[in-house]
Structures are given as structure tokens and as C-alpha cells.
Amino acid sequence: MTTAPESIVSEYKYGFYDPEEALFKANKGLTPEIVNMISDMKDEPQWMREFRLKALETFNQKQNPPWGTEQLNDIDFNDIHYFVRATDRDERSWDDVPEYIRRTFDKLGIPEAEKKYLAGVGAQYDSEVVYHNIREDLEKLGVVFLGTDQALKEHEDIFKEYFGTVVPPGDNRFAALNSAVWSGGSFIYVPKGVKVDIPLQAYFRINTQNMGQFERTLIIADEGSQVHYVEGCTAPIYRSDSLHSAVVEIIVKKGARVRYTTIQNWSNNVYNLVTKRAVAYQDAVMEWVDGNLGSKLTMKYPSVYLMEPGAHGEILSLAFAGEGQHQDAGGKIVHAAPNTTSTIISKSLSKDGGRTSYRGLLKVYDGCEGVKANVRCDALLLDETSRSDTYPTMEIDEPDVSIQHEAYVSKLGEDQLFYLMSRGMSEEDAAKMIVNGFVEPIVKELPMEYAVELNRLIELQMDGAVG
Amino acid sequence: MTALLEIKDLRARIGDKEILKGLSLTIQPGEIHAIMGPNGSGKSTLANVLMGNPNYEVTGGDILFRGESLLEMTPDERARKGLFLAFQYPVAIPGVTLVNFMRQAVNATRGHEVPIREFRETLFEKMDLLKVDQDFARRYVNDGFSGGEKKRAEMLQMAMLQPAMAVLDETDSGLDIDALRTVAEGVNTLMNEKMGLLLITHYQRLLNYIKPQFVHVLIEGRIVKSGGPELAEQLEASGYDELEAQLATA
Known about the structure:
The complex is a heterodimer.
Chain A: E1 24-25, H1 32-42, H2 46-61, E2 84-85, H3 99-107, H4 110-117, E3 120-125, E4 128-134, H5 136-140, E5 144-147, H6 148-154, H7 156-162, H8 173-181, E6 186-190, E7 200-205, E8 212-213, E9 216-221, E10 226-234, E11 242-244, E12 247-252, E13 257-264, E14 270-280, E15 285-292, E16 297-300, E17 303-306, E18 312-321, E19 326-335, E20 341-350, E21 355-364, E22 371-381, E23 387-396, E24 401-411, H9 414-421, H10 427-443, H11 448-462
Parallel strand pairs in A: 3-7, 6-9, 7-10, 8-11, 9-12, 10-13, 11-14, 12-14, 13-15, 14-16, 14-17, 15-18, 16-19, 17-19, 18-20, 19-21, 20-22, 21-23, 22-24
Antiparallel strand pairs in A: 1-2, 3-4, 5-6
Chain B: E1 5-14, E2 17-27, E3 32-36, H1 43-51, E4 57-65, E5 68-69, H2 75-81, E6 83-86, E7 93-97, H3 98-110, H4 116-129, E8 140-141, H5 147-161, E9 165-169, H6 177-190, E10 196-201, E11 214-219, E12 222-227, H7 229-249
Parallel strand pairs in B: 3-10, 3-11, 6-9, 9-10
Antiparallel strand pairs in B: 1-2, 1-4, 4-5, 7-8, 11-12
């Protein structure tokens, strides 16, 4: 039975839905049969089928992570469609994408953005990628930007070399789940010395009710290369919950630079449980810019393993929790080599009873002298009913390091509001200005188009926040 | 003629503590008034109550601005009417540049969007007047500012907003003598025959540079003595103690 989306979509303009016209929708539930069927439908090599089935066993053996929230126990893994195929082709022209799907991406502004400021675009609808394209000149330079399923077919060697090496299925329960039923996502390979100057973007859309989306992204930046990947996501508002559980693995080789920007704007009925991890080698730079505005519960801690001297990791995390939302976000940096450096900046906002948690790990192994690390987390509470917690963990096994850590929780200051209002601004405009200033250190790192979009989303969240 | 600002028997408290106990004062266009008083006499309370700080409660009397009561107005409404307060302790707004903040403030008080070119020209002109560096505008509002920089930023805002009535709360505190002179010159340049100015200060030294026609002494929430500039000099010579003693025996 299909329940109509709730009519409370006024604030969340991405809450529309398409009639379910899937070519194929797997029955609910998670069994070896379902996993085999996914592998069959994708016509995968035997090693991948075995990888999946083994991961399913791991999933069944593992418990939910012990931290965070009891909300996790509300997820009924037997009440989810693990695979929904909307179309059986990953197209390179929007004209070839089925019309109702194309209309959805039109509404989301994707083809327009592609023309204006992107080097390539991928679009995933439910379980699979329906569109992928990259600028011709980049393709000629050897840059690969494909849906992950297609990449497994076309580049099996390099795929097999890296897949599952950064986030093994046994890493955590949701990584195991993704490994068993993964479908879609992006595969990027940037050859030595190639610099992709403008962003590649992927957009993830869930349409089907009670659906699980399990994309799998693998990015390999070869020596001295550079790439900026941006992902966005939205879903219709349904009364029942959906699950999004992705795994992202990134390999940043010597002297390469990768920035991965997320603007997560799932509707408030989506559980967003994602494992994101990068390994950075000599003098490489890995940056996560992680903006979480949507979802019911997000648990996501992008991490960087600094494997060789000179590597630098950076995590900029922004979370906004409104009514009924819990953003459990943060980051993880592991210094596994001397003279590596890192920065974590986390900014979180809570309003209308929303809850944000910063959860971070900073690890420095013995013998990693000369490490410099800086962690700063700020939380801003916009009213009395909201909540913010900080759970920083530090494991420093080497004495010759420089570590700074600061954490602040503040309330929207009455004195700040009064000051701005004394200059003629309404209370609402004053609150927006304070919030915009608060998130500025993150927003200024975004390309202009995304900065504008993020500010707009925050303003939407802020509407009616005061008074 | 309707007064620019008329404070009538004003009583106000913060929490349970009554601070202003019947304060009256009238300011006409073109006039500069100074209110002097010792610590705890109610100077800052007066400044905050005039601007409508919600932490203070008015329990009696009225404040009329061009004949219209301000008491029911929010601080932003008062600002849009033309009232300005230069804060004693301006707060920081991290992440918001002074230039963006001032642009929004100018647009809000004018009630319409001022073209960016016009805004910038005025801003640079006023920055010259107050001898502040152009980089200043790109810094975050009061964030990491020295005491002197904060006061200059307040004066810059006053210069940009061109209020009809400005209240300067302890603007001289935290300024060295050169900065004080620059700020005072700026204020004198901005002052005109249509505008009213109320200087709130503990010390007389600001009044060496900005010359009030009227000086009032505030003690325990009331104006106990009013006079011309000579009153300020008297106070400087003899201090508040002597005046308080005189009042006690009177």
C-alpha cells in the first residue's frame, strides 16, 4: 500500500515524488536470495558475488554501534526494499533518460547546473545511476567518471585493486550492509598530474517508499592529480522511513589533492548512516566538507588516514538539526606517519528541539613525531528546547606533537540580537545574520553556487525561528 | 515646537532592582547634552532603556521621540525612527564582516536598498573621516577588536546611519588621547543643527573635545543638577563625592 506524501512539504521544497514506475522492485527483506538476485541482475563477476554474500554474513553477526541513539533500533531491516531499478540503462544524454525521471532532475536543477559550472554529473535514482557524463576534454585526459556498476564492468582491474580496501565490510554494521547490497554510486579515477579544475557532481535521489539506497563511491586520485567531487541528495517526504547507507572510499596518492563536498538534504524520514574514509599518502591533501541539513538521523564521521609524511587532512563539518532531527556528525583523523597535519572544524546548529552531536576521534600513533593537529567544535543553540553534545576522543601515543582542541557551546545571544536590532534589523534578520556568521568558516570553503545554496537552505530552516 | 527627545519621569529596573527613579530630560534639535555620573548611578541603564534593551523593564514615565512614545517599540523600530546608541561594550558578531553588517543596517534604517556603489563611496568617505584603514571593513564585527577599534567602529556606524538622535555611552572609555581626538572630531563633523546628541560619561575629558551646551549630573537614578559646561569642570575639580555630600546635607 502506498501512503501519499504528507502535505507538510511547504518548507522542504524537494518533498515531491514520482509515481512508482520502477522496472523492478525487490521484495522487502534481506536474505542471501536478495543478494544473489542483485548480483544476477547486475551480471557481476563471481568475486563480487562472494564479496557480497560474505558481507551479508558479517552484517548478520554485527550489532548496531553502541553509541549514538536508540533511534537506530527502530530500523526494521526486514521492512526495506533493498533494490529498486528504475531503468536498466545509465545514459550519457538527458534526452535518453526516461521522461519522468528527467523531470525530477530538472526540478532539482541538475542539468542546468551541469551546463553552467560542472565538469561532469552523475545522477542516481533509487538504486541505480541513470545518467553520467563528463566533459570531453577531461575524458581525453584519461579522467574516468562513471557509475560504480558500470566501472566494475569497464575497469575491473583497478576496481578490484582498491574496492573494499579503505572501508572493509567488517568495519561496522552499516559498512557490512552496504557491502552486501551496494548499488550505484560514483567511480572516479584521475590520472597522474591531471587537475580537474571545476567540480564533478553526483546527485542522489530516493523516490520509492521504504527503500534503502546503498551507493558505493570509489575515488582514486593518482600522483599529483586534483579533483573536487560534490554530492547532493534529497527524497520525498513519506510517512514511513527510508534508509540511506553509503560507503565512500578515497585514495589520495602522493602529492594529490581531493576535496569531497556533501550537501545532505534528505527529507526528515530518512536514516542516513554513512561510512566515509580516505587514505592520504606523501604530501597529499584530503578535505571533507560535510554539510548535513536533512534526514531524521544522520550518523556520519568522514575520516582521513594520513599514511605518509607531509600528508594533510581536513574535515569541515556543518550540521543543522531542526524538529525531530538528530545530526550525529563529526570526523576522524588518524596520524599514521610523522610530520602529518590535520584540522577539524565542526559547526552545529540546533533548533525546535533538534539535536546535534559532535563525535570525533584524533589518533596519533607512537613514533609519529612532528604531528600538528587542530580540532575546533562550536555549537549554537537557537532555543531552550534544543540540544547539543560533544564527544571528542583523543588517543595520542607520541609525545612530540602539537595538538589544539577547543569546544564551545553557545546560545543565540540576546546581547547580539539587541545589538543588531539597535541597527534597524528585525529580530529574524538579526538571527539569520548571527547564524550566517556562525557558519561562515565552512560556507566560505564552498564554490560560490553551493555557498549560495547552503545559505538559502539555512535561511529556510531559520524561517520562523524567532519571535 | 516638539522636542526631539523628551524623557518624562522615567523609571526602570533590571530584575527586582529599580535603577532609574524618575528621570526627566528634554533635547531639542541641534543640542548636545552630557549626562555625567558616578558608577552605578544609572547611566548605562538609561542608554539601554532608550534603545529598548529587553533586559530592562520600564515601570513608569515615558520616552517621546518627536512626540511619539518609544516604549512599545522594539529596538529595530526605534533605530528606524532615527535613534542610535553607541554601545559602551559592543558585542562581537563572528563571521559577519563590518561592511556586510553596515550595508544591512543602512538598508534597514533607510527602509530601502541603497545602491552598492553609493554605499561604498559613503563608507570610504566616513572611514577617512574617522581615520580607519580600509581593511577594517573586511574584518568581522568587533571580533578581536581592541577597545579603541570597537569605539571607532561604533562611530563609523553612526556616521553611516546618520541618526537624528545619537546616544554615546561611555564612548571615551578605552580610547587613548589621539584616538579620543579623532573620534571627537568625527562626531563634531557629523553633528548638525537638526540632530541631537546625548553624551553619557563618567569623566569630563570627552567634553574637552565635544562641547555640550547642557550638562546634567545623574546620581542614584535621578538628575540632581543641571547646568552649562562649567558644571562639568566643577565636577572634574571636586568630584562626585563632594556633590553627593552637598546633596545629602541639603
